[in-house]
Amino acid sequence: xxxxxxxxxxxxxxxxxxxxxxxxxxxxxxxxxxxxxxxxxxxxxxxxxxxxxxxxxxxxxxxxxxxxxxxxxxxxxxxxxxxxxxxxxxxxxxxxxxxxxxxxxxxxxxxxxxxxxxxxxxxxxxxxxxxxxxxxxxxxxxxxxxxxxxxxxxxxxxxxxxxxxxxxxxxxxxxxxxxxxxxxxxxxxxxxxxxxxxxxxxxxxxxxxxxxxxxxxxxxxxxxxxxxxxxxxxxxxxxxxxxxxxxx
Length: 248
Fold this sequence. Notes:
The protein is 78% helix and 0% strand. With 248 residues, it is mainly alpha-helical.
């Protein structure tokens, strides 16, 4: 446990001292801040009913669709791909810590850091509340949870892409492509006839975020979907590292 906690602290610290990640954070805050001001000033529907606001930030808003799949792989690319590139992965895996503990520490470190991205958006809602706006906080927090779960899934896929090798472009691009497929493919294919359509409809992340979490509904299926799929990609990452020992 002490080795795992030490590795977790190392991963969190390394993310907090990486300048390029703060560029991503600045872009994220800037674009979401502009959207926040635009909705409050030029969106009559939101002005009339602030309960719609979480849907734009934590549901199926344009920035969620554009930024959320791309940003997590840009964070996770350095977790394993950078180790491959610098040659520091083998010493790490030979240290007195299990491969799974290494993978889990890197993943949880990325999740902890990504709280900064959504925490800043939640702060906008808090400032709005302090200025006298009436917000449906259970709905806001439920939508916030949904956005976190989707982000944690995209971090897991990004970590798996980062385990493919030392090519940083492949790690970032591959993770982003996979995330966009998870986001868009079910939405495009859910109108297919029969069982296939039902399957894609059940895997529609925008529907879970928009019609579930952003509407203030906690659905056990949606919770299980994100958690199980995240665990699956963490398992694939561990399997990729372990398979290195199988090659003679």
